[in-house]
Fold:
Amino acid sequence: MCDACGCDLKPAHSHDSKVVEVHQSLLAANTAMAAKNRKHFDTMGAVVINMISSPGSGKTTLLEKTIETLGGDIRIGVIEGDIETDRDAERIRAKGVPVVQLTTGGACHLDAAQIHKGIHLLEKEKGGTEIDLLFIENVGNLVCPATFDLGEHHRMVLISVPEGPDKPAKYPKAFHSSQLFVITKIDILPYFDFPVEEATAEALQLNPELQVMALSATSGEGFEQWLDYLRKLCN
Amino acid sequence: MHEMSLVQGLLGQLQQLAAEHNKSKVLTVSMEIGPFSGVVIDSFEFGFGILAKEISLTKDARLIIESPPASYRCCGCGKQIEEEQRPESCPHCSETLFSPEGSDDLILLRVEME
Structure:
């Protein structure tokens, strides 16, 4: 029994306790850092796209092909996020554009503080201060990256044909928070049961404002639409 | 499992609050987790259960989570529909497109400390 008032409420009850009203987002620190990053990107004059998808959906291949076709007109840079290895950065570096590899050492997503470091690392790379279009290739994961604003201007979510058309319904947050949905690897549509219209409709049900396109970085089908989208962003 | 890193952020914030108010023990932590936050409440509780025990400040702390309901606005007639799950079609006009409405944030509401 409590000595002060005789009540039975122990140990949760205390007469020395103080209730502090906080009403602050757990993501506040990340959001504040993301705002700083966005300002930094604006000062650089770079448009920034955060790419979110499962592992193996073709983000790096899409970037390789994009650099090959647009690299002459638009100065592209890349921040790569992976749990381990710099293999993706090596692939991008081979295309001759400034790139930084961030390894999270186990964490399933990039956050705004990591991107802040990434910007400063990128500035040390050749051409790293003169970028028109910066891609952030997030850790391959359709769940966790969706929660963290990195300071990007646009967010895109990718699904490859082998993954199946039900991903939007299963992973709604990535689709709620994106402006663009890209279906990749459409050159292998004949071998998979992937109704493009169904996947599109599911995604639009979650986010009616989502722009949707389907392409193959291997065959080039649908690629012109993607390049037009990027050109418009950079104008 | 980004819930673990969110819990780590929460514990950092609690340590800061305790220092500001000169307190050494957290009794209760009240959180609001929005329906579109992408956070699994069970995983958040699980992470809190493990990580909070590692710090003397929070080892006996109780976590209280409020989760406000989701709602959907019909893209056809504009009426608001309160449902846990996205409705198949609008009961008023049979439209199938909806804009989800509701918080996607995680908010630390209040902390009781001594």
